[in-house]
User: Which sequence fits this backbone?
């Protein structure tokens, strides 16, 4: 009798938008208060990530475990997660970053940023 292959349960990845639209709108307002253009608003979100997103945290990118070491803002004003594995580093746009389950504390700010970015 042949052995049946074991089913492997996929690792859980957090779904985005687990927060109410009203809550995300509150966070957007907080991040963008006194910001008059996209550049200033992006800087506002970056500041909120720095203050509220618990780092480092572990997640999976393309099937590989990585550590999100920090967030950064690029010269062309994109917010990226700096992912580390061993000696390798990769910057991933924060809105494309898969989050672990449970997500890190402060991840609502990522959801708020994604909502804001879709609306601009």
Assistant:
């Amino acid at each position: 009798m042949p052995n049946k292959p074991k089913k492997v349960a996929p690792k859980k990845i957090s779904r985005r938008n687990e927060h109410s639209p009203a809550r995300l709108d509150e966070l957007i307002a907080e991040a963008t208060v006194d910001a008059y253009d996209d550049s200033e608003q992006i800087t506002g979100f970056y500041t909120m990530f720095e203050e509220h997103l618990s780092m480092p945290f572990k997640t999976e990118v393309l099937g590989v475990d990585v550590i999100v070491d920090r967030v950064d803002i690029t010269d062309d004003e994109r917010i990226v997660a700096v992912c580390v594995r061993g000696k390798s580093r990769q910057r991933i746009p924060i809105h494309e970053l898969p989050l672990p389950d449970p997500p890190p504390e402060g991840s609502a700010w990522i959801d708020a940023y994604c909502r804001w970015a879709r609306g601009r």
Observations:
- The longest helix spans residues 38-52.
- Confidence is low (pLDDT under 50) at residues 8-15.
